[in-house]
What we know:
By secondary structure, the chain is of the alpha/beta class. It has twelve helices and nine strands. It has helices spanning 13-25, 39-50, 65-69, 74-83, 99-105, 129-134, 166-170, 182-192, 198-212, 223-235, 240-244, 263-282, and strands spanning 29-33, 54-58, 70-72, 95-97, 111-115, 136-139, 144-147, 153-158, 173-177. The strands form three sheets. Strands 2-5-8-1-9 form a five-stranded parallel β-sheet, with helices on both faces. A hairpin with a 4-residue loop joins strand 6 (136-139) and strand 7. Helix 8 packs across helix 9. The longest helix is centred in the last third of the chain and has 20 residues, at 263-282.
Amino acid sequence: MKFQGTDTYVATDDLQLAVNAAVTLQRPLLIKGEPGTGKTLLAEEVAASLGMPLIQWHIKSTTKAQQGLYEYDAVSRLRDSQLGDDRVHDIANYIKKGKMWEAFAADEQVVLLIDEVDKADIEFPNDLLVELDKMEFFVYETGETIKAKHRPIIIITSNNEKELPDAFLRRCFFHFINFPDHDTMRRIVDVHYPDIQKQLVNDALELFFEVRSIPGLKKKPSTSELIDWLKLLMADDIPAEILKEQDNSNAIPPLYGALLKNEQDVHMLERLAFMHRRQQRNQ
Length: 283
């Protein structure tokens, strides 16, 4: 089976090639790209396209690699021993399986998403090297070795918040999701809003890319924010003419709160609008 995108996810040829190459090489697929470019959603769509279950492990700053394998609850066992609970005689009752254990023990091949790996401590990726290579790990408390019944398709996302170790990178197939161009973005919009007015899409895309091109923006609007913005434009029945009359130098986009996410960027556009109006008065 080959991944070719889905009816709800527009995958470029390069992205399809990367997914299928990682599957063929049996290596984790490391995905980087701007926030909002569909990195996390990719794993969901790959699972749907290939008809496989999806197991998601969302990483936080406090997440440890061991949690992905298993956790031993020694406190609960001590408490139960004090209460005379019979469960205390089987240590397996106090082993909590992690997401990687779930993926390894699955009776069919699954897609395992390790989301935002760069949020964790720098040692987090290194602590998973052996498990990602050998597809097995040892449970010290029970003395058993957990081996993957079927090698999962592993998709790892990163927002580039910190550099990942070289040893970890060597074990991955890497792909950077470039920000969609006009044509790809139009296809994405069509997937979400097949009945939207074409003129509204054209004018909204022009204004959207003009805003993204402004130098110095702290956070450029992303694909997901464009989709939200278009939904609001349709809900409020904003005429396409309103968008056509604006550009990045003379006005703030209508319903800009869907596109701009911090006050610095709003103030920057306001200053540009003020400077443009002053230039017009001096002409």
